[in-house]
Amino acid sequence: MPPRVIATGETMLLGLTPRPGLLRHAHALELKIGGAESNVTIVISRLGIPSAWVGFLGEDEAGQLVLDRVRGEGVDTSRVSRVEGYPTGLYLRDSAGGKVRVHYYRAGSAASRMVPGAFDPDYLRGADFLHLTGITPALSKGCAEFVRWAAREARARGARELRRELPLQAVGRGRRGAGAQARRGSPLGRARSGPEGGRAGERRSRRGSVL
């Protein structure tokens, strides 16, 4: 059965300390995945609705972990590409003084290489919705163009857009000036979402993972 909801964007490997405290004091890390777009497809899949996630991952162990976790939730990952020579993005999470801290390592990641034509747009045919956020276009100029392209292709094939603009701070240590690029070039300025991508989904994505 073709997916009714397709999401495209960045998903990273998440490492978090099992107990509150600084990263430097941890003896182990719990590995999860984090990505607003893939989180939405996982939730939708758990509701019994066919969903798919499209994105770029590195040809590395981190990328395989992300792929296995998303696919293991029943999400179609057949259009995910593995990019040789570029790592899967990573972010680490710890806490200090009761406040959660997030450390991003995504500059030059595989996801930042997404450009128009990154997947066959005919894959969108038959889908009800394409889910996008404001994070991916802030990763690079090519990603901003990719998101605009995906939105146009979805509309041309009858799919509606689930748009959600997340805080630019979520981009973390991305490209300098990437936030301005997102504000100028992203089609996500008029954020809107359906029930699956509303406030509950946003809170979940800020914590990093639904897994």
Secondary structure: elements and pairs:
Elements: E1 5-8, E2 12-16, E3 30-34, H1 36-46, E4 51-54, E5 56-58, H2 61-72, E6 81-83, E7 90-96, E8 99-105, E9 129-133, H3 141-156, E10 160-164, H4 178-185, H5 199-207
Parallel strand pairs: 1-4, 1-9, 2-7, 5-6, 9-10
Antiparallel strand pairs: 2-3, 7-8
Keywords:
211 residues, alpha/beta, UDP-N-acetylmuramoyl-L-alanine:D-glutamate ligase, 4-stranded mixed sheet, 5 helices, 27% helix, disordered C terminus
CATH class: Alpha Beta
Number of E-state strands: 10
Provide mean pLDDT, rounded. Answer: 82
Number of domains: 1
Name the helix and strand elements from N-terminus to C-terminus, one letter apiece: EEEHEEHEEEEHEHH
Q: What is the topology, as strand order, of the major beta sheet? A: 4-1-9-10
Terminal-residue CA separation: 24 Å
Low confidence ranges: 166-211
Largest sheet: 4 strands, parallel
Helix content: 25-40%
CATH architecture: 3-Layer(aba) Sandwich
How many helices in DSSP terms? 5
Give a description of the structure.
By secondary structure, this protein is of the alpha/beta class. The protein has one domain (5-207): UDP-N-acetylmuramoyl-L-alanine:D-glutamate ligase (3-Layer(aba) Sandwich), CATH 3.40.1190. Helices cover 27% and strands 23% of the residues. It has 5 helices and 10 strands. The protein has helices at 36-46, 61-72, 141-156, 178-185, 199-207, and strands spanning 5-8, 12-16, 30-34, 51-54, 56-58, 81-83, 90-96, 99-105, 129-133, 160-164. Strands 4-1-9-10 form a 4-stranded parallel β-sheet, sandwiched between helices. Strands 3-2-7-8 form a 4-stranded mixed β-sheet. A hairpin with a 2-residue loop joins strand 7 (90-96) and strand 8. Helix 3 runs parallel beside helix 4 (178-185). The longest helix has 16 residues, at 141-156. The two termini are 24 Å apart. The model is unreliable at 166-211 (pLDDT under 50).
